[in-house]
Write a structure and sequence with these properties.
Layout: H1 22-53, H2 55-65, H3 68-95, H4 102-126
Membrane topology: Multi-pass membrane protein
Subunit structure: Part of an enzyme complex containing four subunits: a flavoprotein, an iron-sulfur protein, plus two membrane-anchoring proteins, SdhC and SdhD. The complex can form homotrimers.
Function: Membrane-anchoring subunit of succinate dehydrogenase (SDH).
């Protein structure tokens, strides 16, 4: 059966009628942090392999990781690790069929965003 109103409706999801939701943002961030942690793991493996290879190799790897860029990468790696861990806990909560209502899911998303930043600051400052 033909839809007579087809030309009058916007395409879905259209930018003028669609808004971002916290659960959508946190889902995307979980995927991004998961992939970014692979890069972090490779950097750590490189550092250990360089330490096993000898002093010259270790000096290069250690110099990179202790540079301002390496510090920045490691800071965001800690943030990604905390965020990804908390997002995993959120998924365990959802697996128990709890906090799936829209308002509770948005609150849980806001909580993991805030707590991951606070835990990152705590980790960097205290440890």
């Amino acid at each position: 059966m033909a839809d007579v109103n087809r030309g009058n409706r916007p395409l879905s999801p259209h930018i003028s009628i669609y808004r971002w939701h916290i659960p959508m943002l946190t889902s995307i961030l979980t995927r991004i942090t998961g992939n970014a942690l692979i890069v972090t793991a490779l950097l750590v493996v490189w550092w250990f392999a360089a330490a096993a290879a000898g002093p010259e190799s270790f000096a290069v790897a250690d110099g990179f990781l202790r540079s301002w860029f390496g510090d920045l990468v490691m800071f965001f790696s800690v943030l990604g690790l905390w965020y990804h861990t908390l997002a995993g806990i959120r998924h365990l909560i959802w697996d128990e069929v709890k906090m799936l209502e829209i308002d509770k899911a948005e609150l849980l998303g806001q909580i993991i965003l805030i707590v991951s930043v606070l835990l990152t600051i705590f980790t960097v400052v205290v440890l």
